[in-house]
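Sample A.
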Amino acid sequence: MSRNAVAYRYAKSLMTVARKQDILEEVYQDMLLVKNTLEENKNFLDYIESPIVKTSAKLEIAEKIFSGKINELSLNFLQLLGKNGREGSYRKIVKRFVFLYDEIKGIEVAKVISAKELTDDQFNRIKMQVAKITGKIIDMEIEIDSKLIGGFILKVGDYKYDASVKRSMERLHREFKGNLYISKI
């Protein structure tokens, strides 16, 4: 079974149990905490995903980090993943859970990659426009990439709109490179 299928099944199972126990919002917040912890602490992520580290050691460190900070169901879920040899898939499973939650709540994640920090007005205009187009609640993520020179790239689902200066310059470069105009003077 592929890792994506495994991630979906585990995330869906957690979603089902959380809904039955009427603690979906709490479990969602827990999964965001786990997701952010994994993304912000590369050493922890490497430790959890390492095939060399024993599962018992991974479970022990996960319990020390999250015990008292997340719901009992969420902690038991992380331990179940470890016991089933899926601790290396924590990140994929947690991301899939967040995706399923967003889908249920009608939330669309939009990512804006900008050459510089957006003003509040720019941020709000982009967010409102994307919400208008998609008809969904928008959760925007911002990333700064100075290589874009100016402008921005907007990613919503499978859609990508590139309004960066870098992209415009690359397009012009290709056009000039292919221009075989030879003056007859």
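Sample B, a different protein:
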Amino acid sequence: MTTPRPPGNFHSGGMYSILILAMTKRKPAKFSASKAVKAKARERVGQPKPSRVMQSEPRTGRQAKHKPKLEDLLRQPE
């Protein structure tokens, strides 16, 4: 008679455990020259100020696509 296996891919006993399967070594990050230069600049000069969005007036609608008609120009009071 065989012993029942626990559910999943984990084996009971021996060198197998949840911790060994869960913990993997991290791959070292790829070197980037631009990131290294920016890091050096931040050390010397300091962190740049955060950018702010400029307040612009809200658009009140679309501009006229066509030139105004002569009749409309003549009817307008000056």
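Observation for Sample B: The mean pLDDT is 76.
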